Structure formats: C-alpha cells, structure tokens
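quick one, 243 residues, struct below
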Amino acid sequence: VHPNVSQGCQGGCATCSDYNGCLSCKPRLFFVLERIGMKQIGVCLSSCPSGYYGTRHPNINNCAKCKADCDTCFTRNFCTKCKSGFYLYSGKCLEKCPDGLEANNHTMECTSIVHCEASEWSPWSPCTKKGKTCGFKRGNEVRVREIVQHPSARGNPCPATSESRKCIVQRKRCQKEGKGKKNREEKRKKSNKDESKETRQESKGRAARRQNREQRENNNKTQPKKRKAPNKEQDLSPVDTAH
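---
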C-alpha cells in the first residue's frame, strides 16, 4: 500500500488519501470527484448528485456528468430534468418546443396543445321576464352548457356557456303567491258551511212538522166528537106545520 493511502477512512471510503480524499468506495456506493477550487476530492455517495448519473461496474460504481443543458439525467443521452431556459421533450432539453406542442413553464416540459371542449346545449328554459312567467307577452328564454375540458395556454378558447333569445307567450294574469290556494280553501269552507246550514234547517223543519203532526193527533184523541146539527126542516112536528 502506498504510504499516502490509508485503510482507516471515513464517510464510506474503502481506501483514501489525505490529499485526494476517497480513492475507492465500499460496495453499492458511487464514487464521484468534487472540485474545490483547483483541487478535486473523491467522495463516496449513496446516489449521484444533481447533474450526474450513475454507472455500475464490477470493480467500482462511478458518477458521470450529464450534458451541459441537463439538470438531472438517467444516462448521458437521456435527460430527466432540464436547466433553466430549456424544455424537456423525450429525454432531450430544447430551447423551443416542436410544432404541435407548447412549452409548459410550470413543469418546463413540452406538452400537447389541449383545446377547450364544451357539453351539449341544455333545453330552452321557460319564457320569463324579470324572473316571472306571467303578466307579460314578450320575454326571454335561455339555455346553458358546461365546460368539460379547459384549454391549455395555446389551445382554442372556450365558447359562451349561455345563450338567450326573445320569446312570445299568451299573456295571462299573475296570481299573488298563495292567493289562489287561499281562495280555493275559503270557497271549500264556505261550501261546507252552507251545506251544513241547509242540513240543519232541513232537520229543524222535519222536526217541527213531526211535532205539529203529533200534537194534532193528541188533540183529536182528547177532544169529544161534535154532534151533527139537526136539519130544521126535518125536525118540525106535524102540529107546527099545520098551525
């Protein structure tokens, strides 16, 4: 072993040097050179830092540098995140997205253009005027639809979600709220009251007639029968006639 190489290293190093840091790493760790000023120091990490990708070999696992426009990468030719000012598309970092795609400044990716989509129109509403459906001849009716897909930045904008048109109805008077029902209820109560009154009057009349009939029958039973007055011409005796 070289005199500058130490076996009692810290931080995951298998071998190390006082001047160059880690020279080799323990199993499963990645070896990477970090620049400090004009000096490079070897370190051993569980995963490669930003701007590097890992390669595994039988003797050593290394961290290799990504392309200049790549912030993180899977391999040298496949970027997973781009640096500022570039947009990711199919593993590459581009300054401008291809035709048919748009730049998403939130994710810094090239994405498909999404156009607005709306549902079918609803049926026309009843003809109204100032919120009422009576008391007028000309009013308005409306129909609506919903947005089912909102557009992306470069997508076609959404159309109107409501339409209105003039309408004509047969004019009719408006009843005050609850008045029609109240009138019907009052008429029903009055009708029932009149029927009850007539029924009571009929009952009283029948009772009075029955009472008068019973009274006449009782009077006939208690009073003696009147004798029939004799005929004056028949009752004259012969003597009186001769005289």
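Residues 233-243 have pLDDT under 50 and may be disordered.
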